[in-house]
Design goal:
Shape: globular
Strand content: 5-15%
Distance between the termini: 128 Å
Order of helices and strands: HHEHEHEHHEHEEHHHH
Structural class: alpha/beta
Low-confidence stretches: 1-26
Largest sheet: 6 strands, mixed
Strand order of the largest sheet: 3-2-1-4-6-5
Radius of gyration: 31 Å
Length: 311
Amino acid sequence: MIKIKAVDSLQEKENELSLMAEEPSGETSADEIEPAKDKKNLVTRQRLSFENRKLEKRIVRLCAKAIIDFNLIEDGDKVMVCVSGGKDSYALLDALVRLQGRSNVKFELLAFCLNQHLPNFPLDKLVNHLEKIGVPYLIEDQDTFSIVKSKYQDPRNFCSLCSRLRRGIVYRIAKEQKVTKIALGHHMDDVVSTLLLNMYYGGRLKSMPPKLLSDAKEHIVIRPMIYIREKDLKRWCKVQNYDIIPKLCGADDKCRREMKELIEKMDKEQPGRVENIFKSLGRVAPSHLMDEEVFDFVNLKAQPQEEKEQN
């Protein structure tokens, strides 16, 4: 009797386990987990794809806005885009290629790179990128880095002479290639940091204009990315997976680095402040400043009521 009972209890237990296996337990099986994971990954990819398309549209739209606002590119222009291998110049070239294909304004593009013989400069990386983009390009080989090093021992002093040498070569190439506009990859953060640098260390209100006539009045320099924040360009760089060439000259511009850190602090503590500083450059009130060359304070006089009535 006891033996039969044991068998019956065992049978009941097996039946119970069988029923538990058949009934839904509220837990997800392995077969159900995989489709759920796939669906979640698909949603994530779709969301990222959507955000990336928004970012692309934003960058191209802001470039187009700057071009329209300041008449940066006109029909028939030949635009030379200065490409260094950094994120900014890559993004600029990318945006202009997209605009070239969509705009009613017809213009040519020429990518230009100056090989300054920087140590370990991977010129092949830059050439591969330009080949991939499919735009005409020109590489100028000039060992300006040796000239700069021969003049200055401290790398902190490189920037001024290097930029002058580079500018002279850019202008010469632009003339030889019959270029009508020279495009640089400066963005909003560059404009604001340059303004702050001039105020802090130069005692003057001066920044980077969207459109500049060279001193010799032979060349027009344009900055189509002035409405774009650097953080957006960094995101775009990751999306496009650019093969970025890092800074190799060894120069450390302490003052500009200080301004960059200040901008980062403003973004963190007071969002929108950098944009407001940038906007102030287009809302100048000369009568509320102190420059006698732009406003005649000396001959400023009140107008009596009688004269107002006569006028």
